[in-house]
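Collaborator request, handled under Task 6.
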Amino acid sequence: MKSDSEKPHYFGHRKRLRERFEKTGLSSFQDYEAVELLLTLAIPRKDVKDSAKEAIKKFGSFRGVLDASVEELKRIPGIGEAAPLAIRFIKEAANLYLQPKSSSDLTLKRSEPETISLEDPQILYDYCKAALGTQPNETFKVIHLNSRFQVIDLQTLSEGTIDRAAVYPRRVMEEALKRKASIIVIVHNHPDGNTTPSDHDKTLTRALVLAAKTLNITVFDHLIVSKDEVFSFRAQGLL
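Structure tokens returned to the collaborator:
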């Protein structure tokens, strides 16, 4: 059995990283150190600091590393086969964690007569960013709610190209009626990261609001999300 003096130098470094994490979480870590700690869990007997720094150099940040594909991660020197899968697993696990545990986690409420507000808009925003923010193509979803502002379901209505998903107001209304929804929240992503609504987004929103009114359905909001941002038509006074 090797003595402590005979063990590779990175053994002590790994131990110190883990002890720091146990005491402070990731708040005191630089991005490359967070990646390095993650790699130590998948690569047990190798110095991974250089691989961690190379990953940050290539993808820009810890978030960028998590958003990278398995194939992209495999191109990082020394990262091997198992670590990219571990990183992908952590990203997917985080997305799953951010999803509501039940419909009550996305319950809306009337705070005053004539006023509809989100009890906690950030819950909805975080959920939508996790569900759609990193999708490579534009995807259009609808959250259906009942008259008590409880979520019935989240439905994907369209998946398109990198800059357009085909959406038809008639189908949106048909699906809402099938579910007996009284309220809907429209959500779609902009894969390029810019959540500013296009003219098409604004025209579509107006068409959906008009169609919904004829059926006594409320379009509560239209959200445009990226991995970092959320644009709310309601918050911006565009509904």
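The cover message to the collaborator said: "The CA atoms of residues 206 and 239 lie 8 Å apart. The radius of gyration is 22 Å. Please let us know whether this matches your experimental observations."
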